[in-house]
Amino acid sequence: MIKNVAEVKRETCFGCTACMAICKLGAIHMQADAEGFMVPAVDEEKCVNCSACTKVCPALHPWKGREGENKFYAFQHEDDTVLVKSTSGGAFSAIASSVDDPYVCGCVMDEKLYVRHIVSQAEEDIAAMRGSKYVQSDMGNVLREIGEKLSAGKNVVFSGTSCQTHGLLNYLAAAKISTENLITMDLICHGVPSNLMHKEYVKNYEKSKGVKGVKHYFRSKRQGWGLRFMLKNYEQLFVHSGHKQTVVHSCVVADRTSLESQLWLNIFFSDLCLREACYNCPYCTDSKPADITLADFWGIEETDVDLDFPKGCSLLIGRGEGINIVKKLIKFRALDKKQESVARNYQIHLNRPIKRPAKRDDFWEDYHKHGFDFVARKYLRYGKRYSLLMLLYNLANLLKNKRLAQKIGGWLFY
């Protein structure tokens, strides 16, 4: 019998912070493990083995689905200004705006390029939550903050991964806090690298270019959105100051063409750097924990959904109160069985988690022995040869030779 969460295996721990939030004695804090993922650490002198932490832990109570029907929708924000700044169809912004005077909890990248969750009503903070960030965010103390807001009768909108949502719901249930004023959104998730690996990516860029990073955007619509732009959908945009020591926000430079800027693609899609629990994810189902699940509507080109999808389109899966929320939105379309089938065909993580790479252990052993530059060259298609390929890839795009660009891209990126 497990006495506390310190004994939970890292292959099943999601770092959701529910255990820390529920502990009234302050015996649990989160700390980064050797791969940079946040895990619970238990102060045995404070712990009285009350089992409160084990009762809320998603690893010890695996997700088995949610009762009720799951309904599929296409959605596109009516405001092009919001749409262009959103990863797909702007669903997060629309749902957050549909709630009266909400506190919104979502993922941001701070001035140190660290990815974390915050709770805020400030428009600039909520705008910063927009867009995908392919890093597991640091949850900090947001679960308790959400609990305090709900206990005070405030409306709260939460956005996060399914495991983070599950942890939140477990905590609120154990703390006997009503969820009547809570709306939750989760994602169809590929898996997440750590803030440590993102820090290494940033350091590598800054060192190689002699600049200071200002912002990293994980997705771009500059070259379009949709299946025929699949590789270009994931174009990285690294913004830097143009200076080595100081960040001058009035004189920033955006880089989307260097190999160093695009390296995050291979860090993410190599699957070598994902959290161990991602390979055993129990949330690969349409019956997820949140009221609404968000994703790109890949494959919409193959349907007759009447939306201007080249600007970006979201796939929404509503359940329970989430269905009522979707129906209040503008420019949503309920999918029929044929359209839903197309959407499902392109969302493999509704059925199974990502496969654990055979070389994952080798990657991390080499990283700890030799550092990031070594593993980037050995595993992540980085170095002089790939810099030359990147130049050819950019040239093919400039000449609008799609076939050649795709071929070179296949050599460059996972």
UniProtKB/TrEMBL annotation:
Keywords: Iron, Iron-sulfur, Metal-binding
Keyword Iron in record: yes
PROSITE patterns, per database record: 4FE4S_FER_1, 4FE4S_FER_2
Coiled-coil stretches noted in the UniProt entry, renumbered to this chain: none
InterPro entries given in the database record: 4Fe4S_Fe-S-bd, 4Fe4S_Fe_S_CS, FrhB_FdhB_C, Polyferredoxin-like_ET
Residue ranges of the TM segments: none
Domain of life: Bacteria
Domain 4Fe-4S ferredoxin-type: 4-33, 38-68
SUPFAM superfamilies, per the entry: 4Fe-4S ferredoxins
GO molecular function: iron-sulfur cluster binding; metal ion binding
Protein name as annotated: 4Fe-4S dicluster domain-containing protein
Originating organism: Selenomonas caprae
Taxonomic path: Bacteria, Bacillati, Bacillota, Negativicutes, Selenomonadales
